[in-house]
């Protein structure tokens, strides 16, 4: 990841508006966003979301759980993070097997059912994919993430265009999706709970970030105030 400040977005991507419909009755929708990028709206049912949220809670609040990474220059990220499979070091931008920028704890594996889940989402977006790492982020109402590229994975993985699979749970996020170049136009998508966003192929290195969290928008069934985001990648 490379952090940069967010810029103004220029285009809001519209999908069918289902915000007045309870989450449990919303329909799945596949929204192509560009070559290699697919937005799977309402992809997880509320029951599926709850099962994943329970696992996220246990990991985020368990031993070797979430922490706020310090980045180069001494600033703090605006999320709590836990990495599974491989640890992403926010100071070196490298992956490692223990959290050397934090508490030296070894990295836990990605739960096998999550690997299957991410593979299924990728397949719906047209990719064959088995992730070996997952970065879990927790955003409170003030959480955000600057515009960046995911480019710290192995060269082969990136050159092959293996996708990033991103699953959103809890409060809605305003997700910014730019181009390959920092100054390219930026689209703005409201990622809701259960939405899954897949970007690989020609879209693998597109800039992206989260400019804000919309508090109070989580499905009531989840009992969450905030947002979990899981991004799956293959190193
Ligand atoms: C990320 O880019 O690592 C996270 C994106 C998100 O939270 O939707
Ligand atoms: Mn990213």
Question: End-to-end distance, in Å?
Answer: 13 Å
Give helix % range: 10-25%
* Morphology call: globular
What's the arrangement of strands in the largest beta sheet?
2-3-12-9-14-7-4
Query: What is the β-strand count?
Result: 14
Give the helices and strands as they follow along the chain: EEEHEEEHEEHEEEEEE
Describe this structure in words.
Strand 5 (87-89) and strand 6 form a beta hairpin. This protein has helices at residues 46-60, 112-124, 155-159; strands at 11-12, 29-34, 37-41, 80-84, 87-89, 94-96, 133-139, 145-148, 164-170, 172-177, 187-191, 196-199, 208-214, 227-233. The chain contains three helices and 14 strands. The model is unreliable at 2-10 (pLDDT under 50). The radius of gyration is 16 Å and the shape is globular. It has a single domain (28-233), classed as Jelly Rolls, CATH 2.60.120.590. The longest helix is centred in the first third of the chain and has 15 residues, at 46-60. The strands form three sheets. A seven-stranded antiparallel β-sheet has the order 2-3-12-9-14-7-4, covered by helices on one side. Strands 1-11-10-13-8 form a five-stranded mixed β-sheet, with no helix packed on it. The protein has a two-stranded antiparallel ribbon with strand order 5-6. It starts with 10 loop residues before the first strand and ends with a strand. By secondary structure, the chain is α+β, with helices and mostly antiparallel strands. It is 14% helix and 30% strand. Manganese (II) ion is lined by residues 1, 148, 150, 208, 231.
